[in-house]
Amino acid sequence: MDTFMPNLLKIDSIRGLSTGRITSIGAGPEAESIVLFVGHPHKVIFFENDHRYVVAKNVEDARNVIDQLQHVLKRMPVAIIYRFESNFEEALLAWEAFFSENQYLCSIPFFIYVDKGFEGLRQLVAKYSFIDDVIMAEAWNMLNSKIAIVSKFKRMRAFPVYKTSAVPMRKYTRRFYSNFLKRGLDILLALAGLILASPLMLVIAALIRLESKGPIFYAAKRAGSNYRVFKFYKFRTMIPDADKQVEQLQHLNQYDEKKGGPVFFKVSNDPRVTKLGSFLRNSSLDEIPQLLNVLKGDMSLVGNRPLPLYEATTLTTDEYAERFLAPAGITGLWQVSKRGKKDMSVEERIDLDITYANKRSFRYDMWLIVNTPKALVQKDNV
Questions:
Q1: pTM of the entire structure?
Q2: At what angle do helices 275-282 and 174-211 cross, to 10 degrees?
Q3: Dihedral sign computed on CA atoms, order 258, 263, 268, 271
Q4: Coil, helix or strand for 235?
Q5: Which burial class, exposed, middle or buried, applies to 66 when counting CB atoms under 10 A from its CB (0-12, 13-18, 19+)?
Q6: Over the stretch 66-86, which tens digit does the pLDDT of each residue have?
Q7: Local structure of 12: helix, strand or coil
Q8: Which of 242, 236, 241 is nearest to 207 (CA)?
Q9: Domain spans of the chain, in order of start
C-alpha cells in the first residue's frame, strides 16, 4: 500500500510528494482539514486550497486510511474524492458496501473527480446515492465551497438517524403522499405546458436570434434542493457574456450587501437586458424552458428559486441552509408575495424561502399556483 509508511502516524501526503518528504499529518494547523483522494492524483491541483491531502491507491487502501485516521489520530477526513477510472463500477460497488456497513461515515462529502465529461456522469450519480457531486480540475478552486455546502446539508440530514422512538415509523406518511401528488402534478403540467407552448417557443426563439447574436437559451449551473447543482434553462434575455459584467454592475445591486453575509444580485433596469429580453422577463415568458428542468426532476413547479453558485456558497450557515430543504421551483412564496418589488432585503427573501420550506405541502403548492398569475406581470423591470 503506497499511502502508509511503517509509522502509522506518517502518511505520504501530496505536498510531501513534490519534495520526496514524508509528512506527519498530526502536526501543524494544516492537519485540521484532511481530504482523502483515492486514485492517481494530479499533484498540481492540490496547491489551490488549504487542505492536507492523503492519497490512497484504491478503495481497500482508502478504508485502511479512514481506519487509521479514526483510531490513531482521532480524526476523520472532511471529504473523500474518488478519481473516475475504467474500473469504476467495481470500485463504486465497494464504496456502496463500505458506507452501508459504516453508516456514521455517510455524513462525509463524497465527490467524483474527472478530467472532463461531467454530463456523462449524471446517470451514475443518480444510481449511487452516496455520490454528492462531480468536480473537475478547472473547478478545483471551488472545492472548499463544495465541501462546506455538502457537509452542512449532510449533517442536517444525519441528525434524525440518531433519534429513537418507541413508536414504529410509518412507511407512508402525509409528506410521502404530498410529494407523490406534487411530482405527478409537475410531470402532467410541465408536459402539457411544453406541448401547448411549443409554437410560441419557436416564435420567441426566432425573435431572439433576429435581435442579437448568441445562443437562444441561457443555460447555467444552479444550486437547488439539498444544494444539488444542475443545469438551469431560460430563454436568453441579455446580451451574450452578460455574466462577465456582474462585477462592473455591483454598485447597482438592489440588495444590501453585508461583508461576510449572503450575496444576492439583482439590478433594476439592468443595462445588459435586450429590448425583447425586457418583454420576456416582464411577462415571464423567458421561464418557459424551465419546464424541461421540471420534467427532468431538477425543479418543481413550486419551490424556492435555484441560486447561482456564487450566491449558494454564501448560504451554508445554520441560519440560512434551511431554505435548501425545499425543492427548487419556477414559482413560489417569494415570487407571489414580493416579485418585482425593489424594497426587499436579503434577510426578507431568505425568510420567505425558509417559511416555504417549513410550510410546503401539496395544498399549499396549489394555493401558490392559483396566486401566481397575479404576480406574472411585474411592476418593476428587474
A1: 0.55
A2: 160
A3: positive
A4: strand
A5: buried
A6: 888 877 777 788 889 988 877
A7: coil
A8: 236
A9: 10-162, 174-375
Instruction: Tell me the torsion sign for CA atoms 231, 325, 125, 296.
Output: negative
Please choose, from the candidates 220, 224, 229, the residue with its C-alpha nearest in 3D space to the C-alpha of residue 353.
224
Between CA 327 and CA 305 the distance in angstroms is: 9
- Mean pLDDT, residues 282-307: 92
Query: Three cell numbers at 223?
Result: 444550486
Residues 51 and 78: beta-carbon distance below 8 Å: yes
How far is Cα of residue 132 from the mean position of the Cα atoms in its chain?
A: 9
Segment 108-129 shows an average pLDDT of 76
Distance of alpha carbon 71 from alpha carbon 69, whole angstroms = 6
pLDDT value of position 165: 43
Q: What would the grid cell of residue 25 be?
A: 499529518
Q: Which CATH number fits domain 10-162: 3.40.50.2300, 3.30.930.10, 3.30.70.1170, 3.90.550.10?
A: 3.40.50.2300
Q: Are the CB atoms for 105 and 96 separated by under 8 Å?
A: no
Whole-number Cα distances in Å, 265 to 302, 337, 345: 22, 19, 11
C-alpha cell at 66: 479512514
Q: Which tens digits make up the pLDDT trace of 90-117?
A: 888 888 888 888 877 878 889 888 877 6
Q: Which residue has the cell 454528492?
A: 132
**CA-CA-CA-CA dihedral for 288, 358, 336, 185, to nearest 10:** 40
How many degrees, rounded to 5, is the angle at CA 171 between CA 165 and CA 330? 110
CA–CA distance, 291 with 233 (Å, rounded to integer): 9
Predicted local distance difference test score (pLDDT) of residue 298: 92
Q: How far apart are CA 18 and CA 16, in angstroms?
A: 5
Q: Which of 281, 278, 277, 271 shows the shortest CA–CA distance to 339?
A: 281
What are the φ/ψ torsions at residue 356 (nearest 5 degrees)? -65, -40
End-to-end CA distance of the chain: 58
Strand 34-38 to strand 52-56: parallel, antiparallel, or no bridges (unpaired)? Answer: parallel
